[in-house]
Specification:
Elements: H1 2-8, H2 12-24, H3 31-39, H4 50-62, H5 66-79, H6 85-114
Helix pairs in contact: 2-3, 2-4, 3-4, 4-5, 4-6, 5-6
Protein name: Tetratricopeptide repeat protein
Organism: Streptomyces heliomycini
Length: 119
């Protein structure tokens, strides 16, 4: 991947393909961190591309950074062009996953604490 990144420089389509691969590779070592690092490249760091924000939200969920993930999804929804219902459905699904993961994490923390085990 590093070789491709070097040759790609700031070619947006190549960077989107790499971003997509990291998003799909849920079990890659450091995949979420690498996705966030890739997102900081100038070609992707506009903060207005709903697909990039969608991928970032998924990475933040994997890192248990839930509030940041919800914010990224909300920004992505705001950036969608009117009538883009297929991507909107994906974003709503990701938002639900983030909220469910956050709630589960909070429930597990509360359960451990109430059982006398520090979280």
């Amino acid at each position: 991947m590093d070789e491709v990144l070097t040759e790609a420089e700031e070619h947006p389509k190549t960077l989107h393909v790499l971003l997509h691969g990291l998003w799909l590779g849920q079990d890659l070592d450091w995949g979420a961190e690498r996705l966030l690092a890739l997102n900081s490249r100038p070609a992707l760091a506009t903060g207005t591309d709903p697909i990039v924000l969608f991928r970032v939200a998924g990475a933040l969920r994997r890192l248990a950074r839930y509030d940041e993930g919800v914010s990224a999804v909300d920004r992505a929804i705001d950036c969608l062009p009117p009538g883009d219902i297929s991507v909107h459905a994906d974003l709503v699904r990701e938002r639900f996953l983030i909220c469910a993961a956050r709630d589960l994490h909070q429930h597990q923390s509360h359960t451990r604490t109430s059982n006398g085990v520090p979280s």
